[in-house]
Amino acid sequence: MRLLKMTGIGNDYVYADCMRERIDDPAALAVRVSDRHFGVGADGLIMICPSDNADCAMIMYNNDGSEGRMCGNGIRCVGKYIYDNGYVVRPRVSIETKSGIKHLDLTIENGICTGARVDMGVPLFTAREIPALLAAPDADTGSVRITAGGREFDAVLVNIGNPHCVLFVDDADNTDPALLGPEIERLPIFPERINVEFVTVNDLGSMRMRVWERGTGITMACGTGATASAAAAIRRGLCGKRVTVKLDGGELVIDWEGEGKHAFMTGAATYVFDIKGYDVSGSGAANSAAALTAVPVSAAADSRQ
Fold first, then answer.
1. Cβ neighbours for 183, distance < 8 A, ≥ 6 positions apart
2. Which of the following is catalytic: 18, 49, 71, 239?
3. C-alpha angle 262/182/99, rounded to 5°?
C-alpha cells in the first residue's frame, strides 16, 4: 500500500492509497503515524478510497483516532493525488466525504496539480445543524453567548461540513488556542464537540485566524474553519464577499455570496514525501531500525508515480 505525506498550507496528513487495498484498523494507524516523535508526524490519516458516487472517497481520522467528517485542506490534497497519479484525467473532480460529495476545480501547472478551488457547500447557522443544545433547535447561531476561562464570548456557530465556534478577538496573533480551545471544544452544549477559531478582522478583505481542532489540537491551518470564519464575518458585515484568511501555515481565499449560497475555498496542495517500509497492520515499522524511509520532494518530485 502506498503511504505518503501531503500538506495543505501546513495542515499535514499521512495519505493512504486504498483504491485497491484496505486498512483494517485505521483509527489505530492514525494515532501511530500522527505521532511527531515516534511516528511519521501528522495531523491525522486520510484514506483515498473507491466510491460508487464520485471519483473517489476520502475517509479521515484525527490524530487521536476519532473519525472526522471533512477536511478542507485534506480534500485539496486528495484531488491532487488522484489527478497526479492518473485516477482522473480532467481538472474538475468529485470526492465523497462524510459531509457529502464535494466538487473541486484543480489548478494544473505543467501537468501537476498545485491546488484547488473547492465547493464547500452552504454554511449552516441553526442549533440543530451545528449541532448545539440551545433553547430551540431552530435557533439562529449567529450570536451565541458562551463562557470559557471565566470569560463570556459572543460566538458565531457555523457548520460547513464540520461544526465551528468562531470567536472574534482583538489580536489573533497573540491568542493561544490551547488556553480556551480544549474547554470550548468540550462544552456540554456541543454534543459532537466543536472546532474553535480565534479571528481578527483586518479589513473588508482579510482576516487573521488561529484554530483549535477537535480531536487534533492546534493546527497550522483548517480549511473548513477558514470558510466558517469568513462566512461568520461576512454575515456580520465585517467583511466583503471575498476574504483572504491568513493562517499559521499560509493563506486561503474564501468566496461567499451570502445566505443560502455555496461557499468556495481556494488554496494550495503540496506533496511532501513517500513513506517506505511502514507496517500498516502492526505496531510501527517493518524494520525496527528505521520506521520509514522518506523520499523528499527534491528526490521524488511531484509526478504521476
1. 148, 149
2. 71
3. 30
Q: Active site includes 18?
A: no
Is 222 one of the annotated active-site residues of the chain?
Answer: yes
| Residue-wise pLDDT tens digits, 84-115 | 999 999 999 999 999 999 999 999 999 999 99
Which residue range is the domain that position 55 belongs to?
3-121+269-295
Residue 139 lies in a domain: no
Q: Are residues 172 and 93 in the same domain?
A: no
Catalytic residue chosen out of the listed positions 56, 113, 165, 222: 222
**Alpha-carbon gap, residue 167 to 26, rounded angstroms:** 33
Pairing of strands 56-62, 92-97: parallel
Rounded CA separation 129/163 (Å): 8
- Asked whether residue 73 falls in the same domain as residue 172, the answer is no
User: Is 285's pLDDT higher than 80?
Assistant: no
Q: How far is Cα 298 from Cα 177, in angstroms, rounded to an integer?
A: 34
Q: Is residue 128 part of a domain?
A: no
Q: Is the pTM for the entire model greater than 0.85?
A: yes
Please tell me whether residues 166 and 88 are part of one structural domain: no
Q: What CATH number is attached to the domain comprising 181? A: 3.10.310.10
Place of cell 531500525: 289
